[in-house]
Specification:
Blueprint (H helix, E strand, L loop, with lengths): L1 E3 L3 E5 L5 H9 L1 H4 L14 H10 L4 E7 L4 E11 L4 E8 L9 H15 L5 E7 L3 H10 L2 E9 L6 E10 L12 E3 L1
Helix pairs in contact: 4-5
Length: about 180
């Protein structure tokens, strides 16, 4: 499966991506915003993790690549509930030079079109740290709305972390650029 946009391609994760996945997972500029998403932190754990992902029909993880093939991040629909038509979105732009330039917005838009049109899902939700302002702007630009908030205890005693819950429904989603989604194969 390949979903092509104007500047990005969403493609299936491959073993050749393992080093990037580990690099992004260990990057403190990325990792501090991510809840434990199960990504491996060492190359030796990647094969088992990858095999589990491939067997899991409740998860779709794709690599975000530039048109010339450079992997810049990953995007995921997790906890897919086929009966109710819901899934949780996660995204990270792992390559710092590509953050804040619209690649995440384009990747989310392309994946939402696929999720709503091809997968027949009806709503996508996500969790985002309240201090991750760039991500919140990106999600709102695509059409996500804040629906609630959680306060979680952080890993350090006495600290709390505020999380926003956001959601978009199929009938609320109107992609600004229809050409962002071309599924190939």
């Amino acid at each position: 499966m390949v979903i092509q946009g104007d500047r990005i391609v969403l493609r299936l994760l491959l073993p050749s991506d393992f080093a990037k996945i580990v690099q992004w997972t260990k990057d403190p500029n990325v990792g501090h915003y991510m809840d434990d998403d199960g990504c491996p932190e060492v190359l030796g754990d990647c094969e088992a993790w990858y095999n589990e992902l491939r067997r899991n029909r409740l998860n779709l993880r794709l690599i975000i690549a530039t048109l010339d093939g450079l992997a810049i991040g990953d995007i995921e629909l997790d906890h897919i509930t086929w009966r109710s038509g819901e899934a949780e979105l996660r995204i990270r732009i792992g390559e710092g030079a590509y953050r804040g330039k619209g690649y995440g917005t384009e990747a989310i838009t392309a994946l939402l079109i696929h999720a709503f049109d091809q997968m027949k899902l009806s709503q996508i939700y996500l969790r985002v740290a309240s201090n991750n302002l760039a991500a919140i702007r990106c999600y709102e630009k695509v059409g996500f709305r804040k629906e609630g908030r959680l306060v979680r205890n952080a890993s350090q005693p006495g600290l709390q972390r505020e999380i926003y819950l956001m959601r978009i429904c199929k009938d609320e989603f109107t992609p600004k650029h229809a050409c962002w989604h071309r599924q190939v194969g």
